[in-house]
Amino acid sequence: MSSGPLYLGFDLSTQQLKAIVVSSDLKVVSEAKVDFDADFGAKYDISKGVRVNEDDGEVFAPVAMWLEALDLVLQRLKENKCPVQDIRGISGSCQQHGSVFWSADGGSALKKLDAGKTLVEQLTIAFSYEFGPNWQDHSTQAECDLFDAHLGSKQKLAEATGSSAHHRFTGTQIMRMRRRRPEVYAKTARISLVSSFLASLLLGEIAPIDIGDVTGMNLWDIRKDSWHESLLQLTAGGEDGIPELRKKLGDVRMDGGGTMGSISSYFVEKYGFNPECQIVPFTGDNPATILALPLRPLDAIVSLGTSSTFLMITPTYLPDPSYHFMNHPANPGHYMFMLCYKNGGLAREKVRDRLPKPSGSDPWAKFNKAVLETPPLDIKTETDKAKLGLYFPMPEIVPNIKAGTWRYTSKSDGSDLQEKAENEDDWPPDTDARIIVESQALSMRLRSQNLVTSPKDALPAQPRRIYLVGGGSLNPAIARVMGDVLGGVDGVYKLDVGGNACALGGAYKAVWALERGENESFDALIGKRWTEEGAIQKVDDGFKDGTFQKYGGVVGAFEDMEKRILEVAHN
Ligand SMILES: Nc1ncnc2c1ncn2[C@@H]1O[C@H](COP(=O)(O)OP(=O)(O)O)[C@@H](O)[C@H]1O
Ligand SMILES: O=C(CO)[C@@H](O)[C@H](O)COP(=O)(O)O
């Protein structure tokens, strides 16, 4: 084991709190995790990490559960014999957009934490609202309509903030809180994102919001690098409310590196952290994912967590209402392109659970067999039509379609698109296994096609490498389909830490933040220390001549299918 300083990265995502510890040379030293359902499911009455109020479309998590999870994950790190005293810096990644509402007592409660008690015992009084709205929340359509109209159009809002209005974005959530629960809004002294909330616990004071994660709020003017005055006014309900809202939001930390201060004495006394251990700005889980490896332009990351996301980096700011642009969390002037799908892991699980239960220990065995035994688009003979589907157990983000399942067919060139009649029986549940994964990948291909170019030798435009991260990256059948549909001329890779990539990105951020030389960029420092060996594994060839073009033939039909469904949904 390395004897130098260590760095801890957290990931507080939808279903788990993960922790990963690395050395200065980026070797993984220790890991631990808390699984919200397994550890706290009954106690907090949650499922898949959240509670749902179907009537209003609210999705939220108990803040107390996150407090308990932090104590528990640190206890587990200690039990795993992690040399906690050698940890020099801590950063992390957290589910984006979610918010935590602090009461007037929050700041002082954080300052006087007693190591003889637990966080949850002492911090219940610290919040004006006991829940954190979750990114799956879709209760804010009225607020989204106001945000989209406020600057003139969705396009104008996207130009200003990197995204058009989205249910989960924190600006619309805060606005709804003010209108729906005015007493909570009035009692709120500070509002944190989940990332700055977790950083605050460790810092022992309320931490500023981070420059990457702030771009998931619809409130940050990306070009001007400041809060967007007019959107603050909308959120606050008028000009008079702006100063109060600014106070609640606090300042934004512009530097993703450096330190915000030393760790709270609570963690020193309770878990044996070094009092000199520094708390580095935390960011969102997607911004942290792009820090988990030296990503180059034309490389893409597909994150297969509870949500599915597709990420690329670019120095060019090209906002559009159909996707997100966010600030790169470490490189000023660079951006993260993101597509985010609500119907990711849980939608695939629903299709999996309609298949007979496998007899062995791998719950995905039957699903994977079905995926691999079904040919692309389920075209077995020249006369077969291509099968296309949308599988949305929850209302989707891209496109903004209500919950439902739709099955269509088209000719292999995309013509003759038709909805499948309910009573046709040549589409068994086995076929859905391949079609849902293809559908998720086709949506990514459709929406990222303007960002990719031919990587070499006049090959079709496509990503150079595709990196898979998140829980689903462990699945070889999903990796195959991602490569079939999206290409990736240099192949499809998974990170060795699999589901822990965002926590790893957080840990790397801490290394860079505290060891960077003057003006040394994240890419320069991590690029020097990172080696492929032991970090990534090739899991699919990616681009397959012929197969890639087959999917190209139906991308247009896929888009038309979405449009038809959208038209019906909005009429
Ligand atoms: N072998 C597997 N094949 C496919 N999906 C998997 C596999 N293992 C885990 N998953 C999926 O990973 C999801 C959790 O991913 P993870 O990245 O840990 O989630 P989050 O960060 O959102 O809490 C689960 O919903 C599950 O569907
Ligand atoms: O809403 C988004 C991104 O915009 C989600 O990607 C969340 O950030 C949650 O991520 P996971 O829990 O699925 O990792």
Automatic annotation (TrEMBL):
Record family assignment: Belongs to the FGGY kinase family.
The species this protein was found in: Pseudomassariella vexata
GO biological process: D-xylose metabolic process; xylulose catabolic process
PANTHER family reported for this sequence: SUGAR KINASE, XYLULOSE KINASE
Superkingdom, taxonomy of origin: Eukaryota
Domain Carbohydrate kinase FGGY N-terminal span(s) in chain numbering: 135-291
Physiological role: Highly specific D-xylulose kinase which participates in the catabolism of xylose. Xylose is a major component of hemicelluloses such as xylan. Most fungi utilize D-xylose via three enzymatic reactions, xylose reductase (XR), xylitol dehydrogenase (XDH), and xylulokinase, to form xylulose 5-phosphate, which enters pentose phosphate pathway.
InterPro entries, per database record: ATPase_NBD, D-XK_euk, FGGY_C, FGGY_N
Alphabetized GO MF terms: ATP binding; D-xylulokinase activity
EC number from the UniProt entry: 2.7.1.17
GO CC field: cytosol
Keywords: ATP-binding, Carbohydrate metabolism, Kinase, Nucleotide-binding, Transferase, Xylose metabolism
Catalytically driven reaction(s): D-xylulose + ATP = D-xylulose 5-phosphate + ADP + H(+)
Protein name: Xylulose kinase
Domain Carbohydrate kinase FGGY C-terminal residues, every copy: 301-514
Enzyme class (EC, first level): transferase
